[in-house]
Amino acid sequence: MTLFIGRERELEETKALLLNARLLTISGAGGLGKTRLSIELAACVSEVFNAGVWFVELAGLSDGSLVPHTVATVVGVRESPQEPIEATLSRHLGRLRALIVMDNCEHLVEGCARLIQVLLQRCPILTVLATSREVLDVPGEVMWRLRPLALPEAERSDAVDDLLRSEAVALFVDRATLADPSFRLDQKNAARVAEICSRLDGIPLALELAAARISVMSLEDLASRLEDRFRALRSGSRTAAPRQQTLRATIDWSHETLTEAERTLFRRLSVFAGGFGLEAAEAVCASADLDGEDVMDVLSRLVDKSLVNSADRSGGRTRYRILETIREYATERLSQAGESSGIRGRHAEYYLRLAEEGEGALRGGGQSEWLRRLDQELDNFRVALAGAQKEDPGLGLRLAAVLVGYWFTRGVVREGRDWLDRFLAACSADTPCRLKALNGAGLLASAQGATEDARRLLQQSIELSEAGRDLQSLATGLSYLGRLEAVGSIGSGVSGREHLQRAISLSRELGDRPGEGFSLGYLGYIEYYAFGDLVRGAELLQQSVDLLVELGDRLTSLRLMLGLGLIALEKGDVAEARQRWKEAFALSSELRDTWTIGLYLECFSALAARESQAERAMTLSGAAEMVRSRYAVACPPPLKAKIEPWVAPVRDELGARSEEALARGRSMSLDAAIAYAMEER
Questions:
Q1: How far is 330 from 307, CA to CA, in rounded Å?
Q2: pLDDT in tens, 394-442
Q3: Which residue of 172, 317, 410, 489 has the fewest C-beta atoms within 10 A of its own C-beta?
């Protein structure tokens, strides 16, 4: 037997449950190690069950009516022609303090459930430990779901000591060493090992099959072949049960136990990436042969059979997920059924509707909830965009355009702009959607600091909007171009002022109050940055903030409150600047508005410098650099110009120590930078 690695917590939890239950079922997907855990657990509690512990292997049995006979053989009970075998077993076990381990019950659920219920009713101190990919649904059953092994943390994937604390890595390294005694985990191969373990979802069987390949191929070759993991991991131990000798056989075993409706839903769920909700499953997967009202029941059965997980219930919504290894198998089944194109199209349409709803919510109330929802669905949006690029560029353009506000807030500007550029190139017709996409691409380009690209895109949108009399697109384009002149240091400010004044007029004509609030705020920045009018700038910024707060648009208001604090600091009112920035920064952090968080870190650097806290100022400046680098966003040149006169003297004062403080800030995580900025000094 190989070493039992990891699962210490699971062993303690199941031991406590088993000693207080009559029936404990360890459930989970194939390959997670249910059998091995049950063996270790039985060994741990063997002294408690002084009458005996019996292990009954059911994988080779195909007839549920033979379950009682198989158990009787293992327990050592002779059948009697005068009574049913269940009665003979019950009489033999009677009042014995015994444990029966029934392994692999999933394909014989009814037969196992019937026997277990009879034995537990007639044998008052008998305990049964079952392993099954599906719950048995016996009265009094305690179900405990086994999860994959713990994966390495993404941010620390090259630290050897940290990696070995991951159960998945520890198992892989142990089995790889058995396959090739010269194998060692070191700094050079640590990141590759972490990648392999993560791509295999921490599934013990998959990790063991992969580790066995180390004797014949390098880690690099193994990682590259995992694009088709079922082909790469085809053979395992000759002594293992046939269903455990290949990764595909393990999942085949589960698939064969499904009803036709379960197979249909299972393969269709493969279109979801990163998880999904019930509403999404119903919208995408229901059809003439799978009624929408039945999806919930069928999905519940797939959860019971351990092919779908339902771990996340945050926000009052249950979220489901399929392990990537199982999802790849289901994707193959979807293709074999000839359903790929149709189901992927419905998936893209559903997520377009969701993104459109989210776009509206991000301009008003409910921003925190909707940002969380959109975060959860980011992988699904990516899948929908990738599919649309091949099959429906028009839908892809619409989806990319409505995600601009989300991408801007989350600092995913490089990816967002890349999608927009691809779809704009593929869709040349001057539709309202194209104008919206041009405006969005211009906004994201400005966040990157690509001012010339931003101006070109926005001017193109404005020209086309005017030609087509699309007033909404025109107002948006003018407001974004005015914003670009306000924060991008292009032009004298005169044309930017004109663009924003015209945008305000159009927004009022259209009844677009969020658009009006946006343009008022950046007109305030123009007056302050370009013309040096602190009074008029503060007046317009405050009008904008008041309107946006009334509308529930906290995101945009936070970006404008920064200017109010900056004006206060320039007037010498440090207390007001700190109060405004601290309040706004806390909300920005709560909403995870990464671009704005980076700007506030710059401001806190100036505040620390103003109060002669030199090292703190440089550390915060380094943290702001970290945000800009990680999220590919730029600090507006006018803001940098305002801050530099405060920061430069303390940088010079620190001398060589300045670089040390900057490096400290650059090495921070986003959460660490936020916590540091919020510290009272």
A1: 10
A2: 999 999 999 999 999 988 899 999 999 999 999 988 788 999 999 999 9
A3: 317
Q: Could you tell me the two tokens for 330?
A: 């289901």
The residue with tokens 């219920």 is 117
Task: Enumerate domains of the chain plus CATH numbers.
Answer: 8-145 (3.40.50.300), 154-249 (no CATH), 260-338 (1.10.10.10), 340-453 (1.25.40), 586-678 (no CATH)
Q: At what angle are helices 67-75 and 85-93 packed, to 10 degrees?
A: 30
Instruction: Name every residue whose Cβ is closer than 8 Å to that of residue 457 and which is 6 or more positions away in sequence.
Output: 438, 439, 441, 442, 445
Instruction: Report CA-CA distances (Å) from 311 to 197, 204, 314.
Output: 21, 20, 9
Check whether 237 has a pLDDT greater than 60: no
Distance of CA 554 to the CA centre of its chain: 24
Strand order in the sheet with 276-277: 276-277, 319-321, 309-312
Rg (C-alpha) for the chain, rounded Å, is 31
CA 535 remoteness from chain centre: 45
Q: Does residue 271 sit in helix, strand or coil?
A: helix
Pairwise CA distance, residues 83 & 44, whole Å: 35
pLDDT in tens, 294-316: 999 999 999 988 889 886 666 66
Residue 446: beta bridge partners?
A: none
Are residues 553 and 364 in contact, defined by beta-carbon separation less than 8 angstroms? yes
What is the per-residue DSSP string for 318-343?
-EEE--HHHHHHHHHHHHHTT-HHHH
Q: What is the C-alpha separation between 624 and 588, in angstroms, rounded?
A: 14
- Distance (Å, rounded) from C-alpha 305 to C-alpha 56? 20
For residues 54-82, average pLDDT:
90
- The sign of the torsion formed by the CA atoms of 169, 174, 177, 183 equals positive
pTM equals 0.80
Give me the half-sphere count of Cα atoms (radius 13 Å) on the Cβ side of residue 372.
12
Give the Cα separation of 332 and 263 in Å (integer).
Answer: 12
Burial of 466 (0-12, 13-18, 19+ CB in 10 A): middle
